[in-house]
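I had to read the description of the data format several times before I understood it. In essence, backbone conformation is discretised, so a fold becomes a row of integers matching the chain in length. I therefore recommend that a typical entry be quoted early in the introduction. For illustration, here is how one protein appears when written out as sequence plus structure tokens.

***
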Amino acid sequence: MISAAALSSGCATLLGRGGDHSDRRYQHLTEDESIVLKRLTQVLLPAEQFGLPSSLSEVPTVQNIDGMVGQMSGQTRELLGLGLWVFEHRSMASFRFSRFSRLDDDEALRYVNAMQAGTFFERGLMTTLKTLVCVNYWRDARTWPGLDYHGPVTEIWGVRRLGNAPLPQV
């Protein structure tokens, strides 16, 4: 696993991952990272098909991810960038020499499913990216009616917030 990570890191450096090529629309994501995340969001959350708010135009999923990335430590941020680079370029070996972001819908979905059923590293990477996308979609209040969720029960029931009060003693 360590040699695979070292190889990925070396290849990423040699093949152009690095530098600060930030997309002007995002504060913390590079242009390449935002492209991969947009495509992954389209594949994982075709929300419009189910009458839910669009995961790209109505709910700012990638912008939410950008905000979360800005709060990551330097090491975590670097590992996420490396993971996105590997995810984008790994498809070139098995999907007609095409990057993930350039695959059509069916191929992109097959690629995601293959990663979910792949090696330990592939499953871990896919789980991380899937969680990142899904959490940043469903945290938006506009998506809650689709889950029949109406917000925190403390607000609905009018429960008074106690802040950091100690728990009752038994």
